Amino acid sequence: MIRVLLIPSSDYLGHPFPQRHNQIFERIHDGRNFEVHVVRFNIFGKVKLSSKCVIHDFPLEFNTSRTSVYYLLNAVNHLKEILKIVRRESIDIVIAGNLLPPFLLELCKRISRLKIPFIFDLQDYYPTSAAGYICNVHGSSGTVVKGVFESMTQALLRMADAVTVPGFALAMYARAAREKAGSGQIYLVPNGISEHFLKPCDGSQIRKKFGYDEGDLVVGYVGSIEFWLDMKTLIRALSKAYRGGLRVRFMLVGGRLQTAYFKNTMNWIKDEGIEHITDWFGFVGHEKVPEYVAAMDVGTIPFDVKNPTAYYAAPNKLWEYLSQGVNVVSTPIPEALAYSSLLNIAGSEDEYVTALNKAEREKNMRNHGQNEVRAYLKKRAWSASAEKVRGIMYGLVRGK
Fold first, then answer.
1. Domain check: are 283 and 365 in the same one?
2. Higher pLDDT pick, 24 / 103
3. The domain that contains 78 carries what CATH number?
4. CA-CA distances (angstroms) from residue 155 to 103, 148, 177, 228?
5. What ranges make up the beta strands (E) of 230-320?
6. pLDDT value of residue 36
7. Domain around 24
8. Nearest residue to 280 via CA among 355, 222, 323, 229
9. pLDDT the model gives residue 378
10. Three-state SS at 301
11. Do residue 250 and residue 149 come from a single domain?
12. Distance CA 390, CA 387 (A)
């Protein structure tokens, strides 16, 4: 049996919804071939998710509401405890998807001395995504912080025995870093969808419950409302479309994680005068998301292409929207452009309005092109990504 230690990107049990690591490693842990151990960073406090894996809480932590301060205050204790777990549990391989400033580099070095394979899962463009929780990434302090994190990210990419990425743009970024050092393999492990999304749902009850009728064009967004989005352009476009006579309704399924961006979004909605056509549902249970998506006519991916976190993203909401036959409108991030035949691209207010008017005309063609979509969806289930990670880990452990 292979014993895996996962150092997740966030609070494995306290995050409002399952993330990439939850989706993959809950499927890998079986107690026979793979035993997955996970360290829990108690960032959000209350446990919101369940797990089959072996969870390790840190026995001594300094609690704080600011993520950056939490990691800095606990860095030494985290490092010591993780190394104890590696030895005590006879860990065979470590996979990390977190910069954990400032100690992950030191952890990587010590694991290397123990001759334990190390995988770096590059989920986000970390210099910006990590810095965004600390300061304004466009300010002078943001430039400094990003520079520090950029150095850490590049070093981890070079030092890791293997790198996994969820999308094409991140694969190119990782390849450039590793080629300079003559390092090893980069594996594309896509973000996907849970199997319960593969079944088309009936969203009519949700529409009825919240007063949407057949004449309404329900435009939705599912996910965290955070600093890597460009909600302002989308909100202005919705206002413009509404004033132009389109019976649009705005459906937000998600909310704030750690920054004030959600508050800014609510202010923009108020400023544009579309509060009365906006419904915010907050985070809903992951198993209920397909039903909410099915209630939409249009699913949006309003990522800020000027923010590297968004630019390099591989949002699984694309596949969640498509699974329910929803018309998708995305900003021109590389991952969306790679699948442009399946969605609409909007980089400005006017392009959003054009896409929304197109969606209104196509409302009665909801299942148009679904055969092509279904072929993609079968390859994008989280179980397929988990199987790929199993193979990568098995090869590294058996070949060390």
1. yes
2. 24
3. 3.40.50.2000
4. 12, 11, 8, 24
5. 248-253, 278-280, 298-301
6. 98
7. 2-192+381-399
8. 222
9. 79
10. strand
11. no
12. 5
